[in-house]
């Protein structure tokens, strides 16, 4: 239960709905008890009237007595009907308050978790799978909602109805109360166990279903590889095996489910039989009237559902507590990438990196080792190096996705940790190595970083990224949908849309992380020349495997295993005849980039 205390703040927030719910529960339960008493009175009246009615028939007063008798029964019938209608109305109101409250809380919780997720650093996303993140915001929140809605509703009902009914039953006849209620604890315990079994098996089904859908999703998204490697039959066999497992688990669940209702009915039946038997004996001994038996049978039926729900509610609360523990685990993770002073300044673009070292916290890999360089505002730095030499890590640190293990990064003479993170990132244009475009129109993808999208700016960015002509050649131009619901761009087109997205922000500092690998050298040159023009008075960092991308830069660093091994401009590095010159020779001779 303790993890669930965390959501008490929401119960407090929606206390109005909760209190109304409690009030309606009390009122609706009053309308449950009164009809049972009316039934007792009516039956006792019928029994007594019969004994009076017979002598009157002989005396000729039969018709009048019969009329009065029927009228009385009719009035009772109407009263019971009105009570049932009123009860229905209040049950409706209970759902309108408590279940609606649970939906409000569910909405608030999802927003809270999503907002928290977004604030967490990149390292959090490296450690936890997307599936896990999604499960906690959807499935786990739904389970907690079951606690806030149905569990609280039935729990409250139980808490209010039980004392009311039992105290009333005892006031009528304590001994019969004991007999009638004897099977109910057994009922509750059995439901608890059966329910746990159902939950356990449902969970297994859920797991097998999710692995089945992951399998199907992978098979279809990788359909090209699957067909090219002629693995269709193998894939179909694996699917059949996974389906078989799912079917087997579903049948297991059906067996337990089949036990559920007969179990309830059997135990309620036993209660009724005991009530009739014990009550009958008491009627024979003249201790109670016939009506009491009918009244007690009604009470047993009234108590059945709350008692059944006790087992159900207990297992809902247990599951909700487990889910809330998982949610709390993420909510308790703090973002360690925070700004020291929240400085909001318009950047000039002067960058100074000194003695920078970085070890990835999750893998312990030392990606950078004592790296120092300086870029004056408006200049271009080319970073070149083999695979895994630490190039992207420099980009990650400049964007403050991570903080350095040692050394510091100064922008305009101030440590980047002093700047407000959003102000810093808003002034940086980043083109990542793995292009990611949203399933949206091309225009919206390019305008992604803009608070106020402007078509002129979007078109200009597309032209500068050399993708304008490609876009307007599509029938719907900039309104072309991308992704699963739309067209698929070629690798080079994707990269250029991604560059346009970064340019549209008009950033002060631009970081291109190996984003020209899928375009030919001619397009690469066209983009770089256009970039040089638009990045005048702005700072750019061009990370690449290809010398052709880096050679236009004012300054070039060559990285190897996290260390700078050469530094200078194209001419000085060529004159040096070291690694850079060697790479240049190989790449220009073969026309191909050299993978490290
Ligand atoms: N998020 C991460 N968590 C742990 N280790 C990482 C992470 N990202 C990169 N690394 C490791 O850090 C080292 C440097 O990686 P980095 O991505 O900076 O190389 P790179 O020079 O950009 O390579 P490439 O040109 O192939 O992109 C590699 O050994 C890599 O395995």
From TrEMBL:
Transmembrane residue ranges: 16-43, 68-94, 151-170, 176-198, 259-284, 296-317
Q: Where is the ABC transporter domain?
A: 351-586
Q: What is its subcellular localisation?
A: Cell membrane
SUPFAM superfamilies, per database record: ABC transporter transmembrane region (SSF90123), P-loop containing nucleoside triphosphate hydrolases (SSF52540)
Major site of localization recorded for this protein: membrane
Recorded topology in the membrane: Multi-pass membrane protein
Q: Does the keyword Protease apply?
A: no
InterPro entries in the cross-refs: AAA+_ATPase, ABC1_TM_dom, ABC1_TM_sf, ABC_transporter-like_ATP-bd, ABC_transporter-like_CS, P-loop_NTPase, Type_1_exporter
- What Pfam families has UniProt attached to this entry? ABC_membrane, ABC_tran
What one GO molecular function would you report for this record?
Answer: ATP binding
- Determine if Metal-binding is one of this entry's keywords: no
| Positions of the ABC transmembrane type-1 domain | 19-319
Keywords assigned: ATP-binding, Membrane, Nucleotide-binding, Transmembrane, Transmembrane helix
Q: State the name under which the record lists this protein.
A: ABC transporter ATP-binding protein
